């Protein structure tokens, strides 16, 4: 999304939700309204030209109450979580994108089972509220290292025995297959968000139960799903006719940046969607983990942090 399509929001309040987890409630400036969104959506938070991070919306979908995001402090991260923990307070403003949803909830087809690990609870919270409002028969398994690190458990208490909290420090490592069997996941639509190890285990379970469906929200790319292909150089033409050479093994984002063409990017792994760019000409070599097969076949958008060109030239709307 171009910078002009972003909006400035005010930090209404901040709270400590668990050890290392801080929430921020964002509201529109000067009595304005925030864009509509659906459960599972996330926003980009632009902290500087080179520091863009994604956070799931964890509040209800009523924009009048504001958007809530939750930030896990990551000591080994690249600076985004430290910035939002240490430098942002109520009354400050932030530049954010409109919500995008790569983790959409479908209540029309099959019974939902939710699996969250750690901060992966954030996109699932509004999903639970929507499932409850719709009268769906749902269950949640929420796993964490200990009670002090598990955010929003107070909010989950209202759902009673639909929610199963598993704490490793008091119960040991969860037998995930047994837990999923207990919830009837073998014949349900499983929605999972959390660390890579948890998602890999849920994928393994789903692969062994063909009557289940699986939708994942990733924080990082799946190394086993990384696609390889032609690494030869190619040319990118921008919307105003500038030609930029992309070298072998060089990303489009890096080539454009070196040429003075500004783009927004964050994960650099093809999982967040920040760098999604319209394709005006040429055929992309898709290597992301976001686009559907139909979107890849259409070829009218691509993730320029990882994807390349099937041919010699791409024309991009940048």
UniProtKB/TrEMBL annotation:
Alphabetically ordered keywords of this record: 2Fe-2S, Flavoprotein, Iron, Iron-sulfur, Metal-binding, Oxidoreductase
UniProt xrefs under Gene3D superfamilies: 3.10.20.30, Nucleotide-binding domain of ferredoxin-NADP reductase (FNR) module, Translation factors
InterPro entries tied to this protein: 2Fe-2S_ferredoxin-like_sf, 2Fe-2S_ferredoxin-type, 2Fe2S_fd_BS, Beta-grasp_dom_sf, FAD-bd_FR_type, FNR_nucleotide-bd, MRET, Riboflavin_synthase-like_b-brl
Superkingdom of source: Bacteria
Signal peptide range in chain numbering: none
Domain spans labelled 2Fe-2S ferredoxin-type: 232-318
Chain ranges of the FAD-binding FR-type domain: 4-106
Pfam families hit by this protein: Fer2
Co-factor requirement: FAD
Family annotation (PANTHER family): CARNITINE MONOOXYGENASE REDUCTASE SUBUNIT, NADH OXIDOREDUCTASE HCR
Protein known as: PDR/VanB family oxidoreductase
């Amino acid at each position: 999304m171009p910078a002009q399509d972003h909006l400035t929001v005010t930090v209404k309040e901040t709270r400590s939700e668990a050890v290392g987890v801080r929430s921020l409630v964002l509201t529109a400036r000067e009595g304005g309204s925030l864009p509509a969104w659906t459960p599972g959506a996330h926003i980009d938070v632009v902290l500087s030209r080179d520091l863009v991070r994604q956070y799931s919306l964890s509040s209800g979908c009523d924009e009048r109450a504001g958007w809530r995001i939750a930030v896990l402090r990551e000591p080994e991260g690249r600076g985004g979580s430290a910035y939002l923990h240490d430098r942002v307070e109520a009354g400050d403003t932030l530049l954010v994108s409109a919500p995008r949803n790569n983790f959409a909830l479908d209540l029309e087809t099959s019974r939902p089972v939710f699996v969250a690990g750690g901060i992966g609870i954030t996109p699932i919270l509004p999903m639970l509220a929507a499932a409850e409002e719709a009268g769906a028969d749902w269950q949640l398994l929420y796993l964490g290292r200990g009670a002090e690190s598990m955010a929003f458990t107070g909010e989950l208490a209202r759902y009673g025995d639909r929610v199963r909290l598993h704490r490793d420090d008091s119960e040991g490592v969860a037998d995930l297959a047994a837990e999923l069997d207990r919830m009837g996941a073998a014949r349900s639509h499983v929605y999972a968000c959390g660390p890579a190890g948890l998602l890999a285990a849920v994928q393994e379970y789903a692969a062994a139960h063909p009557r289940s469906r699986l939708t994942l929200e990733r924080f990082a790319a799946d190394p086993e799903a990384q696609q390889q292909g032609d690494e030869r150089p190619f040319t990118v033409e921008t919307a105003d006719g500038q030609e930029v050479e992309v070298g072998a093994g060089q990303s489009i984002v890096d080539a454009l940046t070196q040429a003075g063409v500004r783009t927004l990017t964050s994960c650099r792994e093809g999982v967040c969607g920040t760098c999604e760019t319209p394709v005006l000409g040429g055929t992309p070599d898709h290597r992301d983990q976001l686009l559907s097969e139909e979107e890849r076949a259409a070829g009218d958008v691509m993730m320029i942090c990882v994807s390349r060109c099937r041919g010699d030239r791409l024309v991009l709307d940048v």
